[in-house]
Design brief:
By secondary structure, this protein is an all-alpha fold. Helix content is 85%, strand content 0%.
Length: 170
């Protein structure tokens, strides 16, 4: 074999070895790290959207229950207000399901995941109380059951806030 061809062949082998050891190994670690970062960002974005949805439902319920005219509409079974309440109630009732749909959290967001699921316990309890409370209120049994949803709504709102804070990079 011609010495030039031999040098080129040797150079090709060296390039292949370097690419196999140093080049792609470092690239794989970087890409794995980049993939983990992208996964964490995607998961965090999903949790933020979850939090916004829960907060919208909590605020919507609070507004409806704080306006005397809306309270009268709830008691009277007015369909438009009833649809709003049921939509908010369904949002809260699906809290854990929405968090689980995000998938397993990245290691850096496990605490946010736990906080979110903990908040869901309260929010799902509030959804049940709202449903029962509206039915009782419309049957003339007063607003007591409906009003009892305030404590779990407040606890759930605090939990959503904590979960959102745990998503913010430290």
């Amino acid at each position: 074999m011609d010495p030039t061809k031999r040098h080129l062949a040797a150079l090709a082998v060296v390039v292949c070895v370097l690419a196999g050891c140093g080049g792609s190994g470092g690239g794989a670690a970087t890409s794995t790290s980049a993939e983990k970062g992208a996964d964490a960002a995607q998961w965090a974005g999903g949790l933020r959207r979850w939090g916004l949805g829960m907060q919208r439902a909590i605020n919507g319920i609070s507004v409806l229950e704080s306006r005397p005219a809306d309270v009268q509409r709830i008691e009277a079974g007015e369909p438009r207000v009833g649809r709003k309440l049921r939509r908010y109630e369904r949002t809260l009732a699906a809290c854990s399901e929405r968090v689980r749909r995000l998938g397993a959290p990245p290691e850096s967001l496990v605490l946010a995941h736990r906080e979110a699921l903990h908040a869901c316990v309260s929010l799902e309890r509030a959804a049940v109380l709202i449903g029962k409370g509206v039915a009782a209120f419309q049957r003339g049994l007063g607003p007591d059951v409906l009003n009892s949803s305030a404590a779990p709504l407040s606890a759930g709102e605090d939990g959503v806030r904590r979960a959102q804070l745990d998503v913010v990079p430290g």
